[in-house]
Write a structure and sequence with these properties.
By secondary structure, the chain is an alpha+beta fold. Helices cover 23% and strands 33% of the residues.
Length: 147
Amino acid sequence: MNTELIIDEQLNDDEVKIHTKTATTGARILSYIDHFTTDKENLVIRSEEEFLMIQKSDVICAEVRDKTLTVYTKTDRIVTSKSLSAFMEEMKSETFLKVSKAEMLNTQMIDRVEPSFSGNLIARMKNGRKVSISRRYVSKLKERLGI
């Protein structure tokens, strides 16, 4: 990839412009920038009897089953009553992607992606978990990963 830094003093202090030929390349660049800027932030999750502080970058994936959200990190499995949409809103990050009605994952924690039946994909995460990507979200994942 050929990159070039152009200083434009006419931009606002908090403004950055990225020019790419394809949306896939743009999504990948935004994901990288997001990973190195916002994912180091702490996140507070209320479990059954305590409040836990974790770094966003430690989150591998999350799933909802029977109105219970389970968040998988590099070291823990945290159970909370928060909804998946509320959790995704707190994450506010290009690194995290909803991949089905009940699951989301950290694209930086994917070890490999394998085809599954009927057009679905299976993402094998770095902690060994398998996350199913429904057909509806396959194109978004491919775009984000640049495949």
